Amino acid sequence: MKIKKILFVEPPRIYWFVMGEYLPPPTTLLILAAYIERELPGIEIEVLDCQAENMNWQGLEKYIESSNPSMVLTSGFTCNTYSCARAVEIAKTVNKDIITVVGGIHFSSVPEESLIDFPEIDYIIRGEGELTIVELIKSLNNGKKIQNIKGLSFKHNDKIIHTPPRPLIKNLDILPYPAYHLIEDYIKHYHFSMMAGRNTRYMVLEGARGCDHRCSFCTQWKHWGGMWRSKSVKRIADEIEHLNETYGGVFLWLTDDHFKINIRGKKLYNELKHRKCKEDIMLFLQARTDDVAKNPDLVKKLREIGTYWIMCGVESHKETTLKEFKKGTKNQDAYITMKLLRDNDIFSHAMFVIGTRNDTHESIEQLRQFSMDIEPDFSIFTALTPFPGTVYYETAKQNGWIDDTNYTNYDMAHAIMPTETLSRQEVQQELWKCYQTFYGSYKKNIAGVFSKNKLKRILYRHMAGQHVLRKFRRLI
Ligand code: B12
Ligand code: SF4
Fold it and tell me: Are 152 and 138 in contact (CB under 8 A)?
């Protein structure tokens, strides 16, 4: 079948209850759609966001029937594996000739397993997607050999073929802006209630890909070839301005896993400080605690250009665990970071992990105490999750630690592995206790609900509403 029309599908998904009610734009799909649109202008492109449409699986089937695409593409993380598989299965049910393509961290990490488990997937794009998908469409339309396309996995005569990896794009500035124009009707719906309020427009943009650290539990560095590549700071500022001025995007979430304040903080400040949009935007960044701690002056500058929320992977109070994770930070960095963010009126968001092999009731109790001592505005506690593609996954698999192989539960809220002394159930219970300790205090909740800080008020209303605690309780 010649590819004339392609349909990107963001399938119906389960929300991550920990961060409340939200509707995110399908960023990955928009980034890919923009590139295909520019490189292959003859191809008709549609993006369907089932969440924004409030569409269920039957609705998706009907939509594919009426849209009649020649290719259906989707993407997801590990916890979305089955929803991606179901979306492409539906496409095949509608018309077995529709070519189905998936990509992203999960499918890139376990392509062999995925092609065997989900025969309805025709092609897996491994790693960076833009060049590979364009080459695939071109080759299918010109009858060229698929085997010559780098970064692809597929079945051929009942054999699974993995072509060599594709080299990464050198200059990310060549990428077009994400194709928000293809989903203009949905844009007004995107929001993140707990983080920015129900009526603040939420958009996601990419400033960099990958990371040059090597944390054992993280998928990102491997997926992006162990490198950190950034767009130019001017390009990032232009993209921020574009989303704000063209689409009214206010709460702007940078996908960069490691912001690198030391390298880009000052430059981004210089780029944005004279732009009008800085008064309107609310930037969300992810940074390492060592990077924040070492750059107090730049943190102040970032606040001046609209940075209002920074999320940091604090992970653990134990230096031995940080070492075991190859995190490269010290727990002292967390104290300095949280104080710096507080002093600069930036909402401080700390991520913690429990459930390492040597974790006990006592060590998790110490982590809870540590989380109170460093005083972040917002804490998220997660269960150590062996994501396929991580160093930790290989170790856990070899040692038989993985107790739960249902990928839907790989959302860091479900305990997947026991520790040496705690059952999986006990880890789950400890996780609930972490939330209960951090958010369960009556005094703290009252102070939060009536805080002068609007963000804190929204957040504590969410947490004090007990929905999160109740949902965690139900997982035990
Ligand atoms: C923004 C974000 C969110 C947002 C919004 C998600 C969204 N729909 O936009 C929110 C807050 C909702 C969220 C939630 C969660 N997230 Co999140 N999130 C991200 C983040 C920061 C950016 C995603 C993104 O847009 N990336 C940019 C795009 C361009 O990269 P990409 O998806 O990899 O796509 C490229 C290639 O992989 C490839 N590709 C990918 N898919 C496809 C498909 C096709 C057809 C093709 C051709 C190519 C292709 O081409 C693209 C361009 O080259 C990533 C980290 C990151 N930097 O990616 C984490 C990340 C994806 N999240 C993660 C996790 C764990 C979660 C949560 C489970 C919990 C949590 N702790 O946050 C929940 C799950 C929610 C759910 N139930 O779905 C992990 C996933 C790990 C894993 N292996 O599963 C990541 C990697 C963070 C991390 N460092 O570990 N997340
Ligand atoms: S956890 Fe953060 S610092 Fe560590 S490798 Fe992943 S993105 Fe890099």
Answer: no
Q: How far is the CA of 77 from the centre of ligand 1 (A)?
A: 6
Question: What's the alpha-carbon Rg for the chain, to the nearest Å?
Answer: 22
User: For the segment 276-308, what is each residue's pLDDT rounded down to a tens digit?
Assistant: 999 999 999 999 999 999 999 999 999 999 999
Which atom of ligand 1 lies nearest, measured to the CA of 31? 29
Expressed in angstroms and rounded, the spacing between residue 69 Cα and the centre of ligand 2 is 38
The finding on whether 312 has its CB within 6 A of some atom of ligand 2 is: no
User: What pLDDT, on a 0 to 100 scale, did the predictor assign at position 476?
Assistant: 79
Ligand closest to the CA atom of residue 258: 2
The whole-angstrom separation of Cα 446 and Cα 457 is 10
Is 387:217 a contact under the CB 8 Å cutoff? yes
Task: Give the nearest ligand 2 atom to 326 CA.
Answer: 4
In eight-state DSSP terms, residue 197 is: B
Residue to mutate, 28, 220, 252, 351, ligand 1, most ligand atoms under 8 Å from C-beta: 28
Bridge partners for 75 per DSSP: 103
The mean pLDDT of 183-212, rounded to a whole number, is: 95
CA distance 323 to 340: 24
**Does an H or E element contain 45, and which?**
strand 44-49
- Whole-number Å distance between alpha carbons of 241 and 247: 10
How much is the average pLDDT of 163-192?
97
Helix (H, G, I), strand (E, B) or coil at 142: helix
Give ranges for CATH 3.80.30.20 in the chain. Answer: 190-474
| Percent of the chain predicted with pLDDT > 90 | 88
Report the CATH fold assignment for 5-162.
Rossmann fold (3.40.50)
Closest residue by Cα to residue 206 from 168, 261, 243: 243
Which ligand 1 atom minimizes the distance to the CA of 129?
50
In this predicted model, what pLDDT tens digit does every residue of 346-376 receive, in sequence order?
Answer: 999 999 999 999 999 999 999 999 999 999 9
- Please provide the distance, in angstroms rounded to a whole number, between the alpha carbons at the two ends of the chain: 49
Using DSSP's 3-state secondary structure scheme, residue 186 falls into helix
**CB–CB of 254/307 below 8 Å?**
no
Mutate to test the pocket of ligand 2, among 220, 255, 391, 412 (most ligand atoms within 8 A of CB): 220
* Number of other residues whose CB lies within 10 A of the CB of residue 104: 23
Backbone angles phi, psi at 22, to 5 degrees: -155, 160
Q: Which is it for strands 378-383 and 347-354: parallel, antiparallel or unpaired?
A: parallel
Q: Residue 466: what pLDDT?
A: 59
Every domain range in the chain assigned CATH 3.40.50.280: 5-162
CATH of 190-474, picked from 3.40.1160.10, 3.40.1000.10, 3.30.1330.60, 3.80.30.20, is 3.80.30.20
